[in-house]
Task: inverse folding
């Protein structure tokens, strides 16, 4: 066997192995970067949903009732927020909002108008 045949036999598998290792390393780093980016996006979305839920809660609590459409919207936001994990205090807020009446309370003014 000549030298170039030996180098060809040894060299080509080595080059292929090095190339495959390079591909794995490159894609592994990109995959880690993408996973981190996705995690940060999830945390950001969760923070925004939490803020919106709390603002809706405060407004409805102050008013003393929540419209059916607002209740559906609140429920939808909460379900998406809940699916992102780590809910803590928001579970109680959700229960409180869902227990609010869907029509404004009858007051003396509203009785006179009828």
Result:
């Amino acid at each position: 066997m000549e030298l170039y045949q030996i180098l060809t036999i040894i060299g080509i598998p080595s080059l292929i192995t090095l190339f495959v290792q390079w591909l794995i390393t490159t894609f592994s780093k990109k995959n880690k970067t993408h996973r981190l980016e996705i995690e940060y996006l999830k945390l950001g979305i969760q923070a925004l949903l939490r803020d919106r839920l709390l603002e809706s809660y405060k407004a409805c609590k102050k008013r003393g009732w929540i419209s059916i459409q607002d209740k559906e919207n609140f429920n939808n936001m909460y379900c998406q927020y809940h699916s992102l994990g780590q809910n803590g205090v928001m579970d109680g807020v959700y229960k409180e909002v869902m227990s609010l009446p869907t029509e404004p309370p009858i007051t003396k003014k509203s009785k006179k108008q009828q």
User: Anything to note?
Assistant: The mean pLDDT is 84. The two ends are 107 Å apart (CA to CA). The first helix runs from residue 3 to 63.
